[in-house]
Specification:
The complex is a heterodimer of chains A (about 300) and B (about 290).
Chain A: E1 3-4, E2 25-26, E3 30-43, E4 48-61, E5 65-69, H1 76-84, E6 91-93, E7 98-101, E8 104-105, H2 111-115, E9 122-125, H3 139-151, H4 155-168, H5 174-178, H6 187-199, E10 205-209, H7 217-234, E11 237-242, H8 245-251, E12 254-259, E13 262-268, H9 269-274, H10 279-290
Parallel strand pairs in A: 5-11, 5-12, 9-10, 10-11
Antiparallel strand pairs in A: 1-2, 3-4, 3-6, 3-7, 7-8, 12-13
Helix pairs in contact in A: 3-4, 4-6, 6-7
Chain B: E1 21-32, E2 39-50, E3 54-58, H1 65-72, E4 80-85, E5 88-89, H2 95-104, E6 107-110, H3 114-117, H4 124-134, H5 140-153, H6 170-182, E7 188-192, H7 200-217, E8 220-225, H8 228-234, E9 237-242, E10 245-251, H9 252-257, H10 262-270, H11 281-290
Parallel strand pairs in B: 3-8, 3-9, 6-7, 7-8
Antiparallel strand pairs in B: 1-2, 1-4, 4-5, 9-10
Helix pairs in contact in B: 4-5, 4-6, 5-6, 6-7, 10-11
The chains are: A alpha/beta (about 300), B alpha/beta (about 290).
GO cellular component, one term (chain A): plasma membrane
Subcellular location (chain A): Cell membrane
InterPro entries (chain A): AAA+_ATPase, ABC_Ni/Peptide_Import, ABC_transporter-like_ATP-bd, ABC_transporter-like_CS, P-loop_NTPase
């Protein structure tokens, strides 16, 4: 269980208006530690380096659910990509940044070392599942491939395990889906397949970066249910990244709000929603009150 | 429920307390595809948009929302049923009649991705003026004035007229497509996911703008969206489209607080909110079981 301590506001990121008000929850033994992460990119327009992520720190324990909220350009995806070691070309972490996973310094890993970590112990699911699958292979064959390469399973074992995983993620007819090509599946089914691939290595950490954004509301609810259920069943740590505060509120115990590369507010989700400290968080909540189902909250069943 | 700023003096007398219908869709049946792949995607959809009112059309991907809008625009011809704009039958118009109808600018549309709906090589001003030019209206000076008015109407600086779509922000671009729609003085604007590609701040600003325009210009709007949040805040009425059928129509309050059809109940109960729990997983499964496979 995470141990709760209260730090002084000074220990938090130094954004203007960074709050001191929320309870700071720190895991006793962090699984993932991000400290003073700064990510920069070369920009010809700005005649040099631009900062995409500015001095971001957070710590995550095993089995925790953690949300990162922000708009496009807020740095939330670059933060995740740093953790996954998949920053785009020309984008890099600045000196002084530290990211460690279960005691291993991730920023110093070679590509080969990443191969044994990414996709097994650290996994991720992104927004557009279709673009991560090979259109000319059945989805079953793609999961089998991952299980053989990453898990070292024989063909027959891999096939059995694949069907088992397809069952685990709530596909009603795993055998039929196994033989289907990506174009034959709906967005929600594809995202389930991607989740099956992501959890095939039995990860300790799963990052869902806008994983439900492109889905219909009813399907989004199913996929969020699935993620929460996997988290409970396997005890993995789950990071949900979204532009939608409500999505994060539904799944995550803790939330971090980012704007322009900076953490403007973080804390237990209930506290942040009950008593938002930063004007940007308040603005997000106002948008929900005016243009959101929340507008009708009092009359809803 | 907001009341529009007075109906036009020539509005039909029928229903004195209700503004007249700018869009009437009756029993619309539409099929898409050719040969054996041809499939019926709308199975007798009916809905009404009144002057100055915003009607939301909600439903999942593939439910037929966009097909309905394309049929109203005359881009798809229906198998049967009728579409009336301001009382005039517009479904089944011949090619020449259809062109005249489109050029009249009575019905305008705004899509999700402004970058795709604006010509990248055409300045913002020229894009907005294009419809006026097609309608053969005014001289160059008059058009420049109209463009400036349209830009001011949507809250953009007039200087933006000389810029290219690629040189302005996403929120500004969506304002430009709205200006382009409004410059022709439409009676009906079809908005297909107009805020889905925008971030929270721009989304609120565009929704505010649409609210203002419908009141100031007394325009009827059909607001197509899968985002219940935007719908909750902007629309007067909601029509729920499920697999090609309108399964529920009502005021926004009725549909969102007391949904009747199992699909609407599922939809409303699935949307995440900041404080609400929504429906439980088992309740959602129960509703799903009630829906046709």
């Amino acid at each position: 269980m995470p141990e709760t301590t209260t730090l002084s506001g000074a220990a938090l990121p130094t954004a203007a208006g960074a709050p001191a008000g929320h309870t700071v929850v720190e895991p006793a033994v962090p699984l993932l530690s991000v400290d003073h992460l700064t990510v920069t990119a070369f920009s010809p327009d700005h005649d040099g380096e631009v900062t995409l992520v500015d001095d971001v720190s957070f710590h995550l324990g095993r089995g925790e659910t953690f949300g990162i909220v922000g708009e496009s350009g807020s740095g939330k995806s670059m933060t995740c990509r740093s953790v996954l070691g998949i920053l785009p070309a020309g984008v890099h972490t600045a000196p002084g940044s530290a990211v460690s996973f279960d005691g291993t310094d991730l920023l110093g890993l070679s590509d080969k070392q990443w191969m044994s970590l990414r996709g097994t112990r650290i996994a991720a699911v992104f927004q557009d599942p279709g673009s991560y699958l090979n259109p000319s292979m059945t989805v079953g064959a793609q999961l089998v491939e991952v299980l053989r390469i990453k898990g070292g399973l024989k063909r027959r074992q891999a096939r059995e395990r694949a069907l088992e995983l397809f069952g685990d993620i709530g596909l009603r007819n795993p055998t039929a889906v196994f033989r289907q090509y990506p174009f034959e599946l709906s967005g929600g089914m594809l995202q389930r397949v991607l989740i099956a691939i992501a959890i095939s290595g039995d990860p300790d950490l799963l990052i869902a970066d806008e994983a439900t954004t492109a889905l219909d509301v009813t399907v989004q609810a199913e996929v969020l249910d699935l993620l929460a259920e996997l988290q409970e069943r396997t005890g993995l740590a789950l990071v949900v990244v979204s532009h939608d505060l409500a999505v994060v509120a539904q799944v995550c115990e803790r939330v971090m709000v980012m704007q322009s590369g900076v953490v403007v507010e973080s804390g237990p989700t209930k506290e942040v929603l009950h008593d938002p400290q930063h004007s940007y968080t308040r603005e997000l909540m106002r948008a929900h009150a005016e243009y959101g189902l929340e507008r009708w909250d009092e009359e809803r069943p | 429920m907001s009341q529009p700023n007075g109906a036009r003096p020539d509005a039909p007398a029928a229903g004195a307390e209700l503004p007249d219908e700018v869009l009437t869709v009756r029993d619309l049946v539409v099929s898409l595809g050719r040969g054996r792949a041809r499939r019926e995607v709308l199975h007798g959809a009916s809905l009404t948009v009144r002057r100055g009112r915003i009607v939301a059309l909600i439903g999942e991907t593939g439910s037929g929302k966009t097909t309905l809008a394309r049929t109203v625009l005359g881009l798809v011809s229906p198998d049967s049923g009728e579409i009336r704009v301001d009382g005039r039958l517009v479904s089944g118009l011949s090619g020449a009649e259809l062109r005249t109808f489109r050029r009249s600018g009575q019905v305008q549309y705004v899509f999700q991705d402004p970058l795709q709906s604006l010509d990248p090589d055409l300045s913002v001003g020229d894009s907005i003026a294009e419809g006026l030019l097609a309608r053969g209206e005014g001289n160059a000076a008059a058009r420049t004035d109209a463009v400036a008015d349209a830009l001011r109407l949507v809250g953009l600086p007039v200087e933006l007229a000389s810029r290219l779509p690629g040189e302005i922000s996403g929120g500004q671009r969506q304002r430009v497509t709205i200006a382009r729609a409004m410059v022709l003085g439409p009676e009906l604007v079809l908005l297909d996911e107009p805020v889905s590609a925008l971030d929270a701040a721009n989304r609120v600003q565009i929704l505010d703008l649409l609210q203002r325009l419908r009141a100031e210009r007394n325009v009827g709007m059909l607001f197509i969206s899968h985002d219940l949040g935007s719908v909750a805040g902007i629309s007067d009425e909601v029509a729920v489209l499920y697999r090609g059928e309108i399964v529920e129509v009502g005021t926004t309050r009725q549909v969102l607080t007391d949904p009747q059809h199992p699909y609407t109940q599922l939809l409303v109960g699935s949307a995440p909110t900041l404080h609400g729990e929504g429906l439980s997983r088992s309740e959602r499964e129960r509703l799903r079981a009630l829906l046709p496979a």
